[in-house]
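4.2 Preliminary Data

To establish feasibility before requesting continued support, the project team ran the inverse folding procedure on a target of 595 residues. The structure was first converted into the token representation described in Section 3, and no sequence information of any kind was made available to the design step. The complete token record follows.
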């Protein structure tokens, strides 16, 4: 998160109508009142080895890869792709030669995960090359820009006159590409055009970095290149604007159209292999449809309890209208956060360190960012989405409805404790090398598992709160269906929006924001699938280990957090202490043989 961190401050006069006589901290002391000794862990336990034998090897890989990316920094250039491919192949060969049998259970987990990660990265390079080839007819000058920066990075002496000629050549290439697209010839589709416009933005930054390195320090360089550089960067900007407006369809004063970049069946196959999910996209859609059917049956019960008969949308409308007044949202969120902590501590179902309870913060989301994230976000802090005084009247009402009391209560704990904030706290302290294996199936799956589990534990009591929780659970199932259908090329973004409105009960503006976030943002193709599918994996693992009496619940949850972030199939190996064979392949059918 790049937003500034602001320590949470909750006034003493917290809206009496909001919390009545209730203690919004639910028994938790203010940070300054907690005994500082509680922030210090059991040093004896930490003195014992916590990680696998390959921790330093994984850390070395990450540092060496990051160093290589500093050398070859032009994203997508032919040289960067070539050097990364060579690097990954060299690591593959060394890893295969590493003696396997002496490794313990944790070392074997890291061996398999690093091996899987290398195979995935090589697949991504192939995907990047394919996309580059699709853009090459109208970005033929890109390698010339990359070459200037890569020569500079290798400390080759610059030849100002030749550099000026390169700039002129780049400008000529830009103008020729634009002219060809203005004519009657073949034009790129919206997806390729938006991808190219984004690449142009990156190339503009590369060119600026190259120019600024020499300009002012080499008088002859400036004499030759200053004017050609100015004209070339103007041409780059104009070309990117042309692609966005004339091909993609961006209109001044309007939000960018939702285009996305579907990866197709083969792309999904690669990504599912990396996540250790032994199911096809269609099988995952079938799992999601079963979860959706459960939600729809529960919705009828909630609607009847709220006096709405079987009309679940009427019940949802009543919930959306129950929001707090401007200025009261931070206190509402803080109270809900401490309520969840209190509920969990009393049941002793996982370890929540006092330090983690006290070190989260709160910031407010900008109106611009709310177009992509209509609801609040979380992690090291909770980022509250709520109307500001600069919004139009209709936008204010939309934001109020989207951030009503009952939607918030269902997911504050998803973002903070026991969700993302607690995850982040553990990730930084236990097996941090496994951040290389980042996966939404662990990150989002854990947070959603707690939405499942808190429902089962009785945290969600009133019909209105159950409606709030059901809205999100229905949404998570719908995410699997619409995102996979989009990436398979079956659904358009508009069909995804309509599906969220009709099936989940989204207002159209929140549905649009969710689809824009999924496809125009920087989320991985399986990110939206990871929420519920990861939660289902953990639900199955809970039944396998806790409900059978093989593990205590607290040990189960603590083990997941302390094991580090990784695909859930490897979490299973970690919890059971399984020594994986060298030829192990993903095979855990967590949703049954035939979903």
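Position-by-position output of the design step:
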């Amino acid at each position: 998160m790049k937003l500034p961190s602001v320590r949470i401050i909750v006034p003493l006069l917290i809206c009496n109508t909001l919390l009545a006589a209730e203690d919004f901290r639910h028994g938790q002391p203010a940070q300054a009142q907690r005994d500082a000794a509680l922030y210090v862990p059991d040093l004896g336990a930490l003195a014992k080895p916590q990680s696998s034998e390959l921790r330093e090897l994984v850390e070395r890989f990450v540092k060496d890869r990051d160093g290589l990316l500093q050398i070859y920094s032009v994203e997508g250039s032919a040289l960067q792709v070539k050097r990364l491919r060579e690097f990954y192949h060299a690591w593959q060969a060394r890893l295969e030669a590493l003696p396997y049998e002496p490794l313990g259970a944790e070392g074997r987990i890291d061996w398999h995960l690093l091996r899987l990660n290398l195979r995935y990265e090589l697949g991504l390079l192939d995907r990047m090359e394919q996309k580059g080839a699709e853009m090459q007819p109208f970005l033929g000058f890109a390698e010339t820009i990359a070459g200037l920066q890569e020569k500079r990075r290798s400390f080759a002496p610059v030849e100002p006159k030749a550099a000026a000629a390169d700039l002129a050549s780049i400008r000529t290439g830009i103008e020729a590409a634009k002219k060809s697209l203005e004519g009657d010839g073949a034009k790129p589709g919206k997806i390729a055009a938006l991808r190219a416009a984004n690449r142009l933005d990156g190339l503009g930054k590369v060119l600026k970095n190259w120019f600024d390195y020499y300009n002012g320090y080499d008088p002859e360089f400036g004499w030759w290149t200053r004017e050609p550089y100015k004209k070339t960067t103007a041409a780059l900007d104009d070309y990117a604007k042309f692609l966005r407006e004339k091909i993609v369809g961006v209109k001044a004063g309007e939000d960018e159209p939702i285009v996305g970049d579907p990866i197709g069946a083969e792309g999904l196959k690669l990504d599912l292999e990396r996540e250790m999910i032994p199911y096809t996209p269609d099988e995952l859609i079938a799992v999601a449809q079963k979860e959706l059917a459960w939600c729809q049956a529960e919705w009828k019960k909630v609607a009847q309890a709220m006096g709405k008969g079987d009309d679940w949308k009427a019940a949802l409308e009543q919930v959306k209208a129950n929001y707090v007044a401007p200025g009261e949202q931070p206190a509402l969120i803080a109270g809900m956060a401490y309520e969840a902590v209190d509920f969990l501590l009393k049941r002793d179902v996982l370890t929540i360190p006092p330090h983690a309870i006290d070190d989260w913060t709160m910031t407010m989301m900008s109106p611009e960012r709310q177009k992509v994230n209509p609801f609040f976000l979380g992690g090291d802090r909770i980022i509250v989405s709520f109307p500001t005084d600069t919004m139009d009247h209709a936008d204010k009402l939309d934001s109020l409805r989207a951030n009503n009391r009952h939607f918030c209560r269902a997911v504050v704990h998803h973002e903070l404790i026991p969700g993302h904030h607690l995850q982040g706290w553990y990730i930084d302290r236990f097996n941090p090398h496994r951040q290389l294996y980042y996966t939404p199936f662990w990150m989002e799956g854990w947070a959603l598992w707690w939405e499942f589990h808190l429902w089962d534990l009785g945290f969600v009591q009133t019909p209105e709160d159950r409606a709030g929780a059901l809205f999100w659970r229905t949404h998570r199932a719908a995410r699997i269906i619409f995102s996979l259908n989009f990436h398979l090329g079956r659904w358009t973004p508009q069909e995804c929006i309509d599906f969220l409105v009709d099936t989940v009960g989204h207002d159209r503006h929140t549905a649009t924001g969710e689809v824009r976030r999924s496809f125009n943002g920087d989320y991985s193709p399986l990110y939206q699938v990871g929420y519920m599918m990861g939660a289902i994996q953990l639900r199955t693992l809970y039944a396998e280990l806790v409900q059978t009496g093989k593990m205590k619940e607290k040990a189960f949850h603590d083990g997941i957090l302390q094991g580090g972030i990784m695909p859930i199939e490897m979490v299973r190996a970690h919890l059971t202490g399984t020594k994986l064979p060298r030829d192990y392949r993903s095979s855990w059918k967590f949703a049954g043989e035939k979903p």
